[in-house]
Amino acid sequence: LRDLYFANGITMSPDRSHLVFCETPIRRCSKYYISEERVEVFIQGLTGYPDNIRYDGNDHYWIAMPSTVTTLWKLGMKYPFLRKLTAMAAKYGFDPMFMK
Fold it and tell me: What pTM was computed for the model?
């Protein structure tokens, strides 16, 4: 696999034919078919940032999303300097989450 965007979470399908993994910054989860070495999008445009994925044994995948998409996060993804500024502000006690 190439060009992954911070892959965070991976689980095996019940039939072991593919892996499902999530990419946090772009809010997407994909399937990687092992025998075919092929990737397809499983779900994209999530309402939050995926942080792990698990199969529950009952035909469902559970995706943890500890934070939702905010205006500040959208801008931070577009402008790296803003990410740095936000991190510095948080370090000195300013809560950047006011822009929900």
Answer: 0.73
